[in-house]
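Lab meeting tomorrow. Please check the following:
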Amino acid sequence: MKRLRPWFLLVAFVAFSILAIRLFIRLTDGRAQDFVQWGYGDEGERAELITVQRDACPGAPFILPTDGFIGLLYEDPNGPYSSFAPHQGIDIFSNASPGVSPVYAAYDGYIYRESGWRSALIQRIPDDPLVPGRQIWLYYAHMADREGNSFIVPALPPGTAETYVQRGTLLGYTGDYNGNSLRDIWVHLHFSIVLDDGEGRYLNELEFANTLDPTPYLGMPLNHACREQSMGCSPAPDCRQN
């Protein structure tokens, strides 16, 4: 029987130590504890985590598009994401069954729905309210049940293009559709801000570099780096600028 080489043991020890440290950080992370509370808590415990913000926060242009537990934040590196490909938006989890929690337009703009989209819409904002002259897009996803039955309002059918809506317009309802993935998801809305390609089209939302931090647009601490801050309107929501 061959003995394990010292270098192999060292590598294994280092790898195990890194995993142990990451697990410890994860278990002591306030956001992780909130997830446990949301997943296993009763109605009262869940209610403590819900954010309702129907009006725009002071100094912020967007409204929160739906009520719920803002569980996954922007730039979150935890699984199924990673430090190399972090979460490119925010996930707002609904304390209700699929098709119940309304989703509203976060800002004035033009709605598009590709012909094959069952659960998603994207909204063209011609003039970025924080960077005038730049066009951006707002992406809303998971508005269907697990079988793909859409919860998007009938006024926005597949093939919709350049349909103008004002901030606060009803777009649909949150769901738990996850495409062809075998991984079930909780009922929620995935919301992200996507950059324009410079030629009037949106870039691939799945690539983190193509998205913007929603923190200043919503006036809330929505970046994972600021996860320990209490959720809600804040005069200084980005802790990295303090």
Observations:
- The longest helix spans residues 6-28.
- The chain has a mean pLDDT of 89.
- The domain at 50-236 is CATH 2.70.70.10 (Glucose Permease (Domain IIA)).
